[in-house]
Each structure stands twice: as C-alpha cells, then as structure tokens.
Amino acid sequence: MKTALISVYDKTGIADFAKELVALGWKIISSGGTAKYLSDVGIEVTDIAEITGMKPILSHRVLTLHPKIHGGLLALNTPEHLEELKKNEIPWIDMVCVDLYPLEEEINNPSATKESVIEKTDMGGVALIRSSAKGRRITICDKEDRAKTIEWLKNGEPNREEFINNLSAKAEALAAWYCSISGKYLSQGVHEGIFGEKVLACAYGENAYQKPASFYKIPRGTLGKKDQLTISDWVLIAGSPLSYNNICDLDRMLQTMTHIGAGFEKNFNKVPDVVIGAKHGNACGAGVGESGLDAVDKMLSGDLHAIFGGCVMLNFPVDEKIAEELIHKFAGDGRRLLDLVAAPSFTPEAIEILARKKGKCRILVNKNIKKAGLDSLDRSPRFRYVRGGFLTQPNYTFVPDMSKCLFDTKIIKDIILAWAVGCTSNSNTVTLVKDGKLLGNGVGQQDRVGAANLAILRAGDKDLTGAVAYSDSFFPFPDAPEVLINKGIKTIFSTSGSINDEKIVELCKAKGVNLIMLPDSEARGFYQH
C-alpha cells in the first residue's frame, strides 16, 4: 500500500483529492488540522503524531520536522536504506501534498507586524516539499496538479520520471520564491528576486539572431489577485503563437488603453469606446468615440502608413462591421494587414475577416479589457535588466484630475486622450489630439523642439487648428511651444520645473493659448526611458 502525506492550510478541494487516493488503495497520513478535517468527512487517516510518537511542540511550530517523516521521504530505494527504515519503524512515503502558509498575504496586510509575518512563515511545509522533491517522490504544491496526478495514477503512471521531475522542479521553484519573499521583507528590500514560470517559447527575440526567447509569467500572488489583464490572461483564439515583439506590443497597448480608461473614468465617470493602433509599442492612432465605428474611424485616420502591419486594441466587442472597418476603411482596393488585434470578444465572422495567411494576424481575447478604467491600471512594480543587475520602480499610475479645469468638456477629453497616449509612449514625447483623435505622436526625441516638429510631421496635412498638445515633461525653452502655437495649437498640457516657465506662460497668454502646467515632480510622463 502506498502512502500519501497531506498537510494543507487551504482545505478547499482536499477531501475530494484524498477520497480519490483512498479509492486507488492509498493510505493517508496527515497533520493535526488536516487530519481532523479529513477524519470529519469520513476519510480514514493516520495522524503524524502516531508515527513520530510526539505531539506538536513549541506552540505547534514543530510537527512534521522529524526524522520519521523526512526519513520516509529522503530514503533511497536500496536494501541498505530500506533496512534502516524498517529498523527505525519509519514508513516509506510516496507522495506529499502540501501548500504553504500565505506569507505574502500577511506581508501585504496593513495591520501586519514583523512578529505576525514571522509566525506566518512556513518552515515545515517548505521542508516537506523540498525533501519530497529530493527524494523523487510525487510532490504536489499546486492545487491544479491534484486532478492531473489522479488521472496520471489511474492511467498507470506513464512517463513516471518526467512527471515526477516536473512536479519536483515546481516545488523547488516555489520554495525559492517563498523564501525570497521572506528575505525581501526582513531586509526591507535589500534582497530582491525575480521568479517566473515559462509559458511560451518564442521563435526568437526582437531580432532573428536573438535565440532562444521566452515569456515567463510571474506567480499570481506577486501581482495581486485582482489583476486579470496580465499577458498570460489573454487567450489566443486565432493566428500563430505570439512573438517576442507581439508580447511587448500587447504590454504597451495595455498601458495606453488602461490609462485612457482611467483618465476618462476619473474625470467623467465613464469610459468611452476606445481604439488604439500601435507600431513598435507607440500609439500611431487612437480614437475615442460614442460608438465603436466612430472610434475605429478616428484611430485609422491618425496615421494610415504606420498602422499597416501594426497592432490594434479595442475596449469593446468586435463584430463583422468593426472588423470590416479595420481591414478595409481607407485601404483603397486592397486590405490592411494587421499583426495583432486584441479585444474583449470577437464574432466568428470578425475572426474570418481579420485572419491572414499562415496565421500572421494574432487575435487575442480578454473580457476584462471591456471599458477598463481606474481599477485596471497595472500597479505591480516594474523591473528592467541593466548590465550586471536590474532596476525596479513603482508602476505608472499617475492620472490627472481636471475637475478644477474650466475649459470646455470637449477640450478636457482631448487633453485626457493626449496625456494617456503621450505618457505611455517612449520619452521624450509631444502628442497632438483633436476631436477625440490622435493626430500626431512625436516620440523618443532628444529635445522638445524635435518632439514637437515630429508630432507635426506625423500629423501630415491634418488641420491642427484648435488641437491639444501634450508634452511628457516641461519645456526648457519657449521654442517648442512656439512651434506648436504657430501650427494652430490652442491648448498645451505640460509640467512645470523649467527656469523658463515664466516665459512660456507669457508666450501662451500673449497668443491666447490655454496652458495647463502641473509640477514635474508629480506629473512627468516619462515612459520606457
């Protein structure tokens, strides 16, 4: 008879799992709380104390940390080890099913203390899964693996070594991540770790010679339970697997889309229909409208050259009419090629229209992007590799409050759109918007005049009279505002902090231009510096 040790903090579903094991002829041993729970639902279980001959000691701190438990996990299947187990009355343990105290949850509890965190730091559970992994036992530390294991057992344990190895690897990774949380907390951030699970192998990275390239998802607890817009939450329903660049574009569009939604919700209590067109991560078109078709029309007319081969994100469902607009509007006799389209949902007809040969158009679905607003902002820390180390910083979560702004509502809406696009584009950026439509996005420039001129260039022959301009930081000189004003810009939103702020204020007053300046320390919009 095989033996499984079950000891879990969260009892959800554990009785069903234990019953399946018993039906397969397994013996269950368990610790106090779990043993009582299983016994109460009619499952025969042996308490660990009966094996060790010791009741829990030191306020229940020491229970499973005993040679008669870890010996049963670490013993090799050799005559010498088996004889030693027999001599010391130690049972061979074939499986460990353990979860860990919710340490991160306690750390994030506003009322937590160092003492409460230490008490929630699991020692026995971590030791059990590591001993089980080293002993090449069946090691289950993830609820999702319980049903998989039962099915595997019923099927005769195919590919046993590979199956057990994969479970062991997951257990070791979990233990490392768990210990890193404790280390980070106790050191007050001096020690930091980055952990992830590989979920996608990309054909290559940004360029064909950069192989291998992979996408790793971060443990859910690290991101917070409420975030349902992570990259791994998007479902590919048509097209080829995502490339490295596709994933980068999706992440960038998520930042822009959620900032637009957050800005409108904060200032107007309503998120409109929004469409973003992006190329190399930066928005080349963006439209806000009362209808989806209106928003698509505005997005496409932003930059018809750039959107070809680009990516699109919508915060409303895509039907046949929307898909037709995306592919054929302003496209002449041909059709517009898109690499990626992301939305809350697609009709079958829309998928067929958007599809390209060889799956070149990836179609992604996540219902949570629908009218996503303030709660959708990514609040998890951002980190970035630099040579020999990595940088961390809080995420981009500033949203301007325009409640004291006396401008016309239409202008404020344009300000919000310009800000949301500009502050999620590569700095330095100047962004031009008019009538809920992105006209030109001058991104990644070394100077403000260059950014202003590039935005105007990207706008082409569009009429900029009465448009709004956003600058992601202050203007060091009046030259860039003057370039914008001379093209008909009537509203400028920037930050203050330049020694020439007064000159810029005077220029805008003299030209009759609306000027909003928030402190650079509060509202600077640098992104992907």
TrEMBL record:
<dbReference type="GO" id="GO:0003937">
    <property type="term" value="F:IMP cyclohydrolase activity"/>
</dbReference>
<dbReference type="InterPro" id="IPR011607">
    <property type="entry name" value="MGS-like_dom"/>
</dbReference>
<keyword id="KW-0378">Hydrolase</keyword>
<dbReference type="Pfam" id="PF02142">
    <property type="entry name" value="MGS"/>
</dbReference>
<dbReference type="InterPro" id="IPR036914">
    <property type="entry name" value="MGS-like_dom_sf"/>
</dbReference>
<keyword id="KW-0808">Transferase</keyword>
<protein>
    <recommendedName>
        <fullName>MGS-like domain-containing protein</fullName>
    </recommendedName>
</protein>
<dbReference type="GO" id="GO:0006189">
    <property type="term" value="P:'de novo' IMP biosynthetic process"/>
</dbReference>
<feature type="domain" description="MGS-like">
    <location>
        <begin position="1"/>
        <end position="142"/>
    </location>
</feature>
<comment type="pathway">
    <text>Purine metabolism; IMP biosynthesis via de novo pathway; 5-formamido-1-(5-phospho-D-ribosyl)imidazole-4-carboxamide from 5-amino-1-(5-phospho-D-ribosyl)imidazole-4-carboxamide (10-formyl THF route): step 1/1.</text>
</comment>
<dbReference type="GO" id="GO:0004643">
    <property type="term" value="F:phosphoribosylaminoimidazolecarboxamide formyltransferase activity"/>
</dbReference>
<dbReference type="InterPro" id="IPR016193">
    <property type="entry name" value="Cytidine_deaminase-like"/>
</dbReference>
<dbReference type="InterPro" id="IPR024051">
    <property type="entry name" value="AICAR_Tfase_dup_dom_sf"/>
</dbReference>
<dbReference type="InterPro" id="IPR002695">
    <property type="entry name" value="PurH-like"/>
</dbReference>
<dbReference type="Pfam" id="PF01808">
    <property type="entry name" value="AICARFT_IMPCHas"/>
</dbReference>
<keyword id="KW-0511">Multifunctional enzyme</keyword>
<comment type="pathway">
    <text>Purine metabolism; IMP biosynthesis via de novo pathway; IMP from 5-formamido-1-(5-phospho-D-ribosyl)imidazole-4-carboxamide: step 1/1.</text>
</comment>
<comment type="similarity">
    <text>Belongs to the PurH family.</text>
</comment>
<keyword id="KW-0658">Purine biosynthesis</keyword>
<dbReference type="GO" id="GO:0005829">
    <property type="term" value="C:cytosol"/>
</dbReference>
